[in-house]
Design goal:
10 helices; 58% helix; 214 residues; globular; mainly alpha; Hypothetical protein af1432
Length: 214
């Protein structure tokens, strides 16, 4: 089957997730400042929306755990040395860099700081932090919620906004980064729904950004 914006309900085709979700505006407000680092105020809202598309296809997953984890997963970058984020976190064997590990640990700390005051119970907080802890540096997924967060974290990269930001982080042109998406990021996607979304989004991005030309 060909995955295009005509056959896949996704952002590029002007679609919205169809589920009814708990309002998380209080959580967004609580972590507004941490989300201002490293372009996460662009990355995170798009990733949350992709998580909701994935939740539409996976009703077995806990939506509160999934949406909370993806919303908080990169807040830890705000507590990292910004000069090292791009020199160590996106170069070489970046998955194993100390700065990557630090942002995961600090993201867990932020979750533990903000979630109790918003009414989250200890079990839910642990499920959220278990996902944040290792979301970049370990390859294994421990649950369906973990898998959806991992997929959502990658899916935003296939959009024009994701390509624009991430190609700069990796010091590549958009067309070079497109190759990285196809050869490295796409094979890491776990769910078939994520692969469908990524294919449709990338096809539209190639068209919009002229990636077959420049």
């Amino acid at each position: 089957m060909s995955y295009t914006i005509e056959t896949v309900a996704t952002v590029a085709g002007g679609k919205n997730p169809s589920g009814t979700w708990t309002n998380l505006d209080d959580l967004w407000r609580a972590v507004e400042q941490p989300l201002r680092s490293r372009g996460n105020d662009i990355h995170t809202p798009l990733s949350v929306m992709f998580a909701e598309f994935l939740l539409d296809a996976h009703p077995e997953a806990d939506p509160l755990v999934t949406r909370t984890a993806i919303l908080l997963h990169d807040t830890g970058w705000s507590r990292c040395d910004e000069s090292k984020i791009f020199t160590e976190g996106f170069q070489g064997d970046w998955r194993k860099s100390d700065i990557r590990r630090l942002h995961e640990l600090e993201g867990c700390n932020i979750a533990r700081e903000v979630l109790p005051g918003l009414g989250y119970d200890e079990e839910t907080i642990k499920r959220v932090t278990d996902i944040i802890d290792g979301h970049d540096t370990r390859m294994e997924s421990y649950s369906i919620e973990d898998s959806l967060v991992r997929d959502a974290d990658r899916l935003w990269r296939f959009t024009p906004a994701g390509i624009a930001l991430a190609s700069g982080w990796f010091k590549k042109t958009p067309s070079q980064y497109r190759i990285q998406l196809q050869e490295t990021t796409y094979p890491e996607l776990i769910t078939e729904t994520a692969r469908a979304l990524a294919s449709a989004e990338l096809a539209r991005s190639i068209e919009l950004l002229k990636l077959d030309v420049i």
